[in-house]
User: Fold Alpha/beta hydrolase from Vulcanimicrobium alpinum.
Amino acid sequence: MNTDDDLIRFEAEGAPPLPADGDVAYTEHDGARIWHAAYGDGPAVVLLHGGLGHSGNWGYQVPALVAHGYRTVVIDSRR
Assistant:
């Protein structure tokens, strides 16, 4: 198994793009506009980045979760 536990490769290369076949939308409420996308079917897993990250950081995890039968939802911070 090829791991990157120290995040050296991730820091240098970033994550691959999110899949192109997601259900992409924005939710607006009280002046906030929040982007989100969902992929796959099955029990839901919600991925919310922290700090200065963004949903694109989940490019490795989304395909793996979908392949294992999960509906995977990624959410960006308020815009």
Remarks:
- The two ends are 37 Å apart (CA to CA).
